[in-house]
Amino acid sequence: MRGRMMRVLHINTERTWRGGEQQTLYLARGLKQRGHETQIACQPGSPLSARAREEGIEVAEIPMRAECDPVAIRALARLIASQQYDIVHMHTSHAHTLGCLASLLARRGARIVTRRVDFSIIKSPVSKLKYTWGITKYIAISEAIKRVLVNDGINPDRIAVVHSGIDISRFGKTLDNARVRNELHIDSNQPVIGNIAHMADHKGQKYLIQAVPEVLKEFPTAKFMIVGGGELRPDLEHYVEQLGIKSSVIFTGFRGDIPELLKAFDIFVMPSHMEGLCTSIMDAMAAGVPVVASNVGGIPEIVQNELNGLLVPAKNPSALAAAIIRLIKNPEQGIKFATVARKTVETNFSVDAMVEGNIAVYISGVLVRSAQAKGISESQPTAGK
Predict the structure, then answer these.
(1) Smaller CB count within 10 Å for the chain: N or C?
(2) Is domain 7-165+350-379 in CATH 3.40.50.2000, yes or no?
(3) How would you list the strands of the sheet with 7-12, edge to edge?
């Protein structure tokens, strides 16, 4: 079975570019390199569509306007039936519904859903039905997410854990950390504490902002860089003004030069209070930047406290500030953490490991689907009897 070529359709409904879209592209690329036929169904004009095409990956641009968009469901069903996909892999919450219904309509494909967030799935009877019916296998990107799914009623036998992976080669080059500092008017002797994440409540940037005044008491020239976009950016910028720390906090917006940005950081901070896993932490570790992060969700599966980084309680600005101050005062300790962290990522969180983990789930899903189909056909009455 492992040597068999599979036909895989990925469905991703996001219109922007975040970690989940990067993982979808990494996976599609890895499958193609291994000889599997793969296609991505995504939103017209989306960054995922453009980047997939650049890499020679087949794309089907299908407008997916809502979770139960009947036009999208029919279009996906036609695609699944015409291409005879073995696997329909759904990468977002809306893709979950659309892909599942389309696959059922086409009567084709093992249905695989990747779950990237550690939010509870049981919000209503409709939500419970969505998650407990019709899916062949779930892929949780961390043990923490698997625990949430199991606690919410999903059979653990239907859940596989496959950690996300990063392209470590992006951080192996000699990068110019002076360019970013010069662009942002930061002197070489000023400590830079950075965060890279979508600005949403669960990412916890407000707790980092609350920690800034405490750090500035000891290191008045420190700069804090918050990288990314999101719905909370105006609120966070207003909060910075209220605290009187505008000169110390830089909002860069979305950036495409993450490896160089990270080289400009002295410390990377992830203050989430909910987190499925977090590839931004992996990026920082691969770049050799010491990490301070909240002890929540899947983060402890990456960061081991006092070994390759520091973990602090969530929603605790004082603890966050203390950890940042500690690493600024003791840069040699940060270097030790970063050295171990790079090895952690190389060993456990590569793209290749992620792709191989997904393939193993696909094989299991195809076998389950085949057994289900056989059981159904054997149970059907023969015509005329």
Answers:
(1) C
(2) yes
(3) 58-61, 37-42, 7-12, 87-90, 110-115, 137-140, 159-161
